[in-house]
Specification:
Elements lengths: L6 H22 L8 H14 L3 E2 L5 E2 L2 E2 L5 E4 L2 E3 L14 E10 L2 E10 L5 H19 L7 H14 L3 E2 L5 E3 L6 E5 L16 E4 L2 E3 L5 E3 L6 E3 L5 E3 L2 E6 L2 E4 L6
Helix pairs in contact: 1-2, 3-4
The protein binds 2-amino-4-trifluoromethylsulfanyl-butyric acid and cobalt (II) ion (2 copies).
């Protein structure tokens, strides 16, 4: 299977990613103390429908389990795949990660961000800003002629230079007609290692960064991934197209 998209596939990836970015922005605007993660999920589902898209998460199968919601919303020590619930009320001082993955016209756009709920502590502010910067540095390495390990190394070294750890149990990925396609895009690795980056790849680059140790656990719901030491965690993700002119972020928020 080639990891390079055709021009017509790229046209449709652009459209799917633009929808994913718009929905993420719309859900982001609803975040405030008192809202439940289920409120956000239902809004996300409706925003997708209004744009002619649907959730790529809903019914997504891992083993015998099907994901039961339309978005992933992960609070504080939850790393990713937080299952929205009417019982989870966002509180002032929380950080919340919103991960929106849509299917539009047969193609998938995947993006995520972590944001404050109300006002947060300086140590959480810094965790969030270091994770966002790690994504930017990883994207800069998504250049034709580089290798995937150059992305991985840039992310890992930035994160660890601030004393945080990268999650190793989950990784970024190619994305296209399937949510998870080759190549794997780990957030740790060595410069110059891994698959060669060619023009026309669409990569979901997504550092997951823990304030404490790198280990994770999955809760008994079968989905929600938390830090093993219950330290807070942040996550940012963009779908990026590699071009001869450099990386192009397909999930940039609408202006
Ligand atoms: N959006 C996630 C990713 O970045 C995947 C979510 S799959 C789900 O790869 F089933 F948990 F929704
Ligand atoms: Co995602
Ligand atoms: Co992803």
């Amino acid at each position: 299977m080639s990891m390079v998209k055709t021009p017509s596939q790229i046209v449709r990836m652009r459209e799917a990613c633009a929808v994913a970015a718009r929905v993420l922005q719309q859900v982001k605007e609803l975040v405030r103390p008192g809202v439940t993660t289920q409120d956000l999920d239902e809004a996300g589902r409706d925003f997708m429908a209004a744009l002619g898209a649907r959730s790529a998460d809903y019914g997504y199968q891992i083993g015998s389990r099907r994901y039961p919601a339309h978005t992933c919303i992960s609070v504080n020590e939850e790393v990713v795949h937080g299952v929205p619930s009417f019982r989870r009320i966002l509180r002032d001082g929380d950080i919340v990660s919103l991960d929106v993955t849509v299917t539009y016209n047969g193609f998938i756009g995947d993006n995520a961000l972590t944001m404050p709920v109300g006002s947060i502590s300086p140590r959480l502010e810094k965790l969030v800003s270091v994770t966002a910067a790690a994504l930017d540095l990883g994207i800069k390495q998504a250049r034709v002629g580089n290798r995937i390990g150059d992305i991985s190394h840039a992310i890992q070294s930035h994160v660890e230079s601030h004393g945080y750890s990268v999650v190793r149990d989950l990784i970024g990925h190619g994305v296209g007609e399937q949510m998870h396609e080759p190549p794997e895009v780990p957030n740790f690795g060595r410069r110059g290692s891994g698959p060669l980056i060619k023009a026309g790849m669409t990569l979901a680059i997504e550092p997951m960064v823990n304030l404490g140790g790198s280990r994770t656990k999955t809760l008994s719901d079968g989905w929600t991934v938390v830090t093993a030491d219950r330290s807070p965690s942040a996550h940012f993700e963009h779908t990026v197209l590699t071009t001869d002119q450099g990386p192009e972020i397909l999930t940039l928020p609408p202006t």
